[in-house]
Structures are given as C-alpha cells and as structure tokens.
Protein: Acetolactate synthase small subunit
Amino acid sequence: MKHTLSVLVEDEAGVLTRIAGLFARRGFNIESLAVGSAEQGDVSRITMVVPGDENTIEQLTKQLYKLVNVIKVQDITETPCVERELMLVKVSANAPNRAEVIELAQVFRARIVDISEDTVTIEVVGDPGKMVAILQMLAKFGIKEVARTGKIALVRESGVNTEYLKSLESKF
Structure:
C-alpha cells in the first residue's frame, strides 16, 4: 500500500539529504516528493508518498524521528486531507486535432500555457487521480513531455472525508 507522509523539518541545509539517505540505506523507495516552506518561516514541510505495509511505515517513522532536524512525522494516508498535484504536459496538437485537445483541457479545468504549430502545453492542478485521467485521455494525441510536482497534502480540519464527498456527487 502507498502511504502519504507529512514531515515537518527545520529548514536547514542537508536535511533533505539526510532523509533521502535514510531511505536509501533502508532500501525504501520514495515515489513522490514535494518540499516547501511551512506555516513557520524556519520550518519546511516534506510530503512524500512511499510504498510499504503498516509495520514498515511505523519503523520508517521511528527512524525519521531519530534525525536531528525532524520536528513531526505524520502518516496522513487514512486521514481526511486535501491533496493536490501540479502537472505540465506537452501534447502533439496539429491543426486538425488542436481544438479537441483544447476542449479536453477545458473539461478537466486545465489551462493552456503554451501553443506552437505542433504542440499544446497544458497545466493541470488537482488530485493525483485527475492527473492519471487526463493523461489517459491525452495519450491518443501523443504525449511529448510530462513534468509533475508530486503530491502535496494538508489534513482537513473539518474532518470531512473526501471519498465520502465524491460518493455524494455521483448521486446528484
């Protein structure tokens, strides 16, 4: 199972290197990694997606806490949270199919950020499922390049379960 970990760290040089080293020494893979400033100026939030069972993630969490600059580690996999990812995708789009590519981007509430004679570059923001869905739809046109930020997430203070909300949407 894939787990989403939110790690607060002191914003100092070498912190990310130590965390990556910990994963490498233990043979763990990081599938997604996003780092940025947190709510306090001297603290950064690292959001990572890692595969593993409950015992593995518990062991990994304990190991992370042993690192000097780690403030807090939270497995937010089962916690209601807001998840987002940013993706840029460059798609083949010549004159005959350009309108269809642009229309598809609009359906996904994506933005066209560049157009050339042969390509359209699309900016997509949303949950990881949206990224997969639009890539599947764009594949028939020919995907030239993809750049993704990796997932970022914050716990929902409301405690509302997003999956529950999605199930309600499908009923209306």
